[in-house]
Amino acid sequence: MRVSHETIYRSLFVQARGALKKELQYHLRTQRKMRHSRFSSTKGARNKIVGAVSIHERPPEAADRAVPGHWEGDLVSDANNTHVATLVERRSRVTILAKIKGKDTVSVVAGLKREVKRFPQHLRKMLTWDRGMELANHKEFTIATDVQVYRCNPRSPWQRGTTENTNRLLRQYLLEGTQLHQYSQEQLNKIATRLNERPKKTLGFMSPADKLREAVAATH
User: Fold this and answer.
1) Which SS3 state, helix, strand or coil, does residue 121 take?
2) Cβ-contact 202, 166 below 8 angstroms
3) pTM of the full predicted structure?
4) Can you give the C-alpha Rg of the chain in angstroms?
5) Could you report the per-residue pLDDT of 120-165, keeping only the tens digit for each?
6) Within 10 A of 141 (CB to CB), how many other CB atoms are there?
7) Rounded Cα distance, 126 and 65, in Å
8) Structural domains present in the chain
9) Are 95 and 208 within 8 A, CB to CB?
10) CA–CA distance from 102 to each of 27, 85, 111, 170, 181 (Å)?
11) Which pLDDT band holds residue 184 (cuts at 50, 70, 90)?
């Protein structure tokens, strides 16, 4: 009988209590808590983004990670409702962190445009995002960056699994008790560099930065 890693995680978290539960969580590489859908309380407003394009219309090359330039995005939030935008390139797992003033779509789009435009055009093909209203102004983002935005299905965080995993690792680099709005863009860039220089098993123990350089060289 085969048992998935998710079944094992869930069994441990359900049965463990107190100090044992904290000890088990500590030894997990991402130090994550029990997974819950981020969309369990989603209301109809999230489905009313004008001009939203479904992930099912995304070109196949994005799904198979064949070429660089396809990104996933999300927001990391703290208990005080301040946020940092994260973008992860699907082939290399290179991470961008963008300082944003708030969760409103104007602030989020401004932060994403600023950071994405630092990359050359051949590394800016498409972005997969959830159905959140923070990217309601996706057309403005696309006009400014030439990056087409595709939306995940409701209650389907695994459709952006690369970003979900990266966000868990990111929290290891954030100072406990520090509000996200206190980080400058320079500080966020340094954290992103540490993530991008960290070897990954899934990349054959290459770093995301090295993997991106390899991928770019192979396509030119």
Assistant:
1) helix
2) no
3) 0.77
4) 18
5) 999 999 999 999 999 999 999 999 999 999 999 988 888 899 999 9
6) 23
7) 12
8) 1-34 (no CATH), 46-218 (3.30.420.10)
9) yes
10) 33, 10, 10, 19, 9
11) very high
